[in-house]
Amino acid sequence: MTSPLWLGRYRSAFAVVVSAIFAAPLYLALVNVFKPADAIRAHPLALPLHDFTTANVASAAQLSLVQHGLKTSLIITVGSLLLMVPLSAMAAYYVSRWDSKVARLLMLFFLFGLMLPPQVVLIPTTVILRHLHLMFTYWGVILNFAAYYLPFGVFVFSGFLRSVSRELDEAGAIDGASSLKIFWRIIFPLMRPATASVIVVTALWTWNDFLSPLIILGAAHGVTITTGIYLAIGTYSIDYGQEFGVMFLASLPVLALFLFLQRYFVSGLTGGATKG
Amino acid sequence: MAQVEFSEVTKEFAGGVRAVENLNLRIDDGEFVVFVGPSGCGKTTALRMTAGLEAISEGTISIGDRVVNDVPSSKRDIAMVFQNYALYPHMSVFENMAFGLQQQRVSKREIERRVRDIAQLLELDQYLSRKPRALSGGQRQRVAMGRAIVREPAVFLMDEPLSNLDAKLRVQMRAEIRGLQREIGTTTIYVTHDQVEAMTMGDRVAVLRNGVLQQVATPHVLYHRPTNVFVAEFIGSPAMNLFEVPVDHGRELVLDSSERMPAPAWAVDQLSGLSRIVVGIRPEDLHIDGGGVGLHTSVRGTEDLGAEVIAHLETESAVATWRHIRELADELDRPRPESRFRRGAAKDDRVPLVARFAATVRVREGERLRLTFGADKIHLFDVESGLALKRPDDGISGDERSLRSLITEPAIDGGLTAGKA
């Protein structure tokens, strides 16, 4: 592949500019977390060199809105993952290993689910949840997320399963194991990279989602950390320092999760080149 | 311990491809039977049907006294060694071997004892805590064997278990597997495309072609009494020389204008009415001017293998390339004889031959040789069907069972020419 000379010459410059555009909000968020409120106003772009402080984070952590929000977000995210990861892995196993009409239709159905924007299904979902008396409950939000992200899980897992040799299933069957046992004892442990990817991505989406918890949980009945930030802006005038502290605390858990699982993450997305 | 019986077994895949056709075969308790044939011959499908990994379209397969058509793999009391071993990558060697026993709810202590016993037998005891990826190819192969043996199944099924090993290790493992099977005495079906492996390992060898069983017999009978041209060509390396000659009044085979060979007594009846016949001669049965009838040839090249010399020759006589030999060569993935076949001029064909001489014999390229052969060494096949002319029991094999199979299970209908259709 040859590219025009001028492109080659300016390619790195171009990359730097694009990166800078993406990085600017992150930079702003990060430097201002550790500056006193007046410094934020005066020099929003400056690095916190001589006035470095962790007071913002500390005061944000004191807020009941934040404490409550972090707890709620954690419950919802972990709950959704616990429900969605095993279910989507099992569904993917069925869809990709059984060659039947049902399996093919199911795969099509999941692909369709993958293309639906969340806003489109949110209102119908609330109607269903209301009938089930699950509106304004953790279970309501958890079920909503688990169902909505299930197709994504199926998609990633079934892609990965293609690289897991069928001979392993056959060896398991001949060794006398049932399909369920083959899945849990042999196949699922081998899908660790895919599982890590699904966990990281879904956790991120669930954690950061604003609209679903706002509508389903309702502001009066509980806040997640994202709806918490929104409420904090109104409730506590404009304490920028504290606001940045809240944002910092809000993004910390997902960041930690990503760092923890990142070594599996990339190989999971690329389909697991490991030989069965 | 159990016998395995295939009774009119047919496998038809979606789209109408018949991978196995009307297979009838009885494998005795403790017997080691090899399924061999070129790729696509149905040997693996037959094995997978026995394992329950592939549904049986027609007929029945029995293990012991039980028809297993509708029995799931897990309940068939079999163990299988896969071509790629299919070891569980996330489990240690111990766990790999123990997995099957755990499914049978064998007690922990018993599992421990049996796995350690087998590991010792296979010299794997130092590797029990390792993961498969930390093992060499040969060790993985042994773990796969161990996983099968430790279960003490009624039947072992092996699907080309040695094909991923290098040549030297393969020869070694061949002997090891055979030795183990003799020791344990478990009925075994072994699939391979390698005829040397088949001949060296099997009590009996079943040759398949396009889903049809061609012959099942001991290696000795298979080599010396092939039932058709396919088996004759497939078994043995270098392959049997095959050429076509005119028959004179059912009594003489015309090799060329000066060389005529009286038809063997046992064949005279069957030759009457035939104008041409296919003659087969093994490379080691050709001798340099040893007296008797012979073929006039010239040397095209030699391969000195140290212990023996392989000579590639070409006839100068009036024999003809058998008309189906090129199809056969293609099917077996062998080099095609050079095409000099001209329509209506078959008699002028120069047929390539291969001879195997003792190491002391010196032949030069271009040298002209008269190659002779004993009348009892020739094989005769029908020109159209490729079937061997029937021969009386001449004590080639003392194995009554194999001889019976030779007689009662001749190259099923269609022999050679019908198969490809």
Describe, in plain words, how this protein is organized in 3D.
The complex is a heterodimer of chains A (276) and B (421). Chain A has 276 residues and is mostly helical. Chain A has helices at residues 5-33, 37-42, 55-62, 64-97, 101-115, 118-131, 138-161, 166-174, 179-190, 192-208, 211-217, 225-235, 240-269. Helix content of chain B is 25%, strand content 27%. Chain B has a six-stranded mixed beta sheet, sandwiched between helices. In chain B, strands 13-12-11-14-20 form a five-stranded antiparallel beta sheet. A five-stranded antiparallel beta sheet of chain B has the order 15-19-16-17-18, with no helix packed on it. Chain B starts with a strand and ends in a 13-residue tail after the last helix. Classes of the chains: A mainly alpha (276), B alpha+beta (421). At the A-B interface, helix 8 and helix 9 of A face strand 6 and helix 2 of B.
- The count of DSSP E runs of length 2 or more, i.e. the number of strands of chain A, is 0
Tally of DSSP helical segments of chain A: 13
Q: Output the structural class of chain B.
A: alpha+beta
Radius of gyration of chain B: 24 Å
Fold blueprint:
The complex is a heterodimer of chains A (276) and B (421).
Chain A: H1 5-33, H2 37-42, H3 55-62, H4 64-97, H5 101-115, H6 118-131, H7 138-161, H8 166-174, H9 179-190, H10 192-208, H11 211-217, H12 225-235, H13 240-269
Helix pairs in contact in A: 1-13, 3-13, 4-5, 4-7, 4-10, 4-12, 5-7, 6-11, 7-10, 7-11, 8-9, 10-13, 12-13
Chain B: E1 4-12, E2 18-27, E3 32-36, H1 43-51, E4 58-63, E5 66-67, E6 78-81, H2 93-103, H3 108-121, H4 137-149, E7 155-159, H5 167-184, E8 187-192, H6 195-201, E9 204-209, E10 212-217, H7 219-224, H8 229-234, E11 241-248, E12 252-254, E13 260-262, H9 268-271, E14 276-281, E15 287-288, E16 294-304, E17 308-315, H10 325-331, E18 352-358, E19 368-372, E20 379-381, H11 400-408
Parallel strand pairs in B: 3-8, 3-9, 6-7, 7-8
Antiparallel strand pairs in B: 1-2, 1-4, 4-5, 9-10, 11-12, 11-14, 12-13, 14-20, 15-19, 16-17, 16-19, 17-18
